[in-house]
Each structure stands twice: as structure tokens, then as C-alpha cells.
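Notes from hallway chat w/ T.B., transcribed later so I don't forget. T.B. wanted the structure written out for a chain they're using in a teaching module, and asked if we could keep both sequence and C-alpha cells in one place. Agreed to drop them here.
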Amino acid sequence: MLKKTYNRQMGGFALTSMACLLCCISMRLPQWRVWYYEDPIIFKPTMAFVGIWKACVFFNGNNSSNMKICHQYNYRDSFIPLYMQINQHLLLVAISFVLFGKITTIITLGSLCMGRLWRNVSGKLFRLSGILKIIASIFIFFAVLLNYISIICKWGIAFPPSFNMPSDPDTQKIGSAMVLATIAAVSFLISGKICISSN
């Protein structure tokens, strides 16, 4: 029975590690929202990626090659709307919960392997780890949902003139980073349930 618990917890830990990687990648990528608009200076169709921490604009060069210019920002910037600040905080808190949950799982598994922890204590620690992962999953789901609502409702962002981006695109769609974040959230949820149920 104990070996079965080890196997399930190790599987859950591997799933958590993969989800953590996907979540970190999605946070760094700008492809949360894909904007399409006509550039007011060159009068050409332009594409931009609007992410949680940066926005990237793609320009057509003279030799038909695309140039990418990215601009970093954070929650202290005055032009960042409230919903983006909420998304930034949700993802940061989610990663913090996941890291604490992973540390709890590592310590618990290590102590069990060396026989330093009682079964009932390890069960409580595994449950704590599972609850933290489920909370992180919920936070990521909220961030994804809020981003999706911003696309559906066509909420704009008053970027500074130096960004050379409009506040509202002509059209926009879901980006690949949002898909990665959704996969990460589902993986955290499954991993959390494994932690809770394998005691």
C-alpha cells in the first residue's frame, strides 16, 4: 500500500513539474492575445501579441521579412488596466502556491523513504500539497477566463505612443500562451487530486 502511494505521488510530482514548466513558459510568452490592425503610419496590416508581461509588434520589413519589437511592462506601469494587473497577480500567486506544494511533496516523500515520518503525518502533508495545487489551478483558470473575457468584450489597452500600438485592435483572438496556461491549470488540478486521494 505504501509503495502504491509512492508511485502515485511520484506520478503526481512529475505531472506538477510539467505543469509548472508550462505555466512559467505561458507567463513569459506574449501570445495571450493576438491583435490584428492596420498600422496608422505605414498603412499595412500588422499583427501584435499582447501578453501578461510584454507586448510584441510584428512589422513587415523592406525585404518582405518580419521584424519583431517587444516592450516589457509590469503592474506598476500606469497604462496597464486593472484586469491585466489582476492576471499578473493571479499567476504570481499561483506559482508561489505550486512551489510551496512541490517543496512539501519532496520533503514528505524523502522523509517517508527514510522512515522518518509517520503515515498519518505524511497523509496530512500530501493533502496540504494537493490543496495548494488545486488553489493554484483555480487561480490560473481565473487568469485564463479573465483574458478570454477581455478578448470577447474587446477590452483595449492604452499603450504609450512609444509602443506604436493602438489601444483597440481591429480584430483579436486567443493566443497559444493561453492554451498552455489552460493545460497547466488542468494538470495542477489532476496532480492536486492525486495528492489528496492517495492517502
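Follow-up for T.B.: The first helix runs from residue 2 to 28. Might be a good example for the class.
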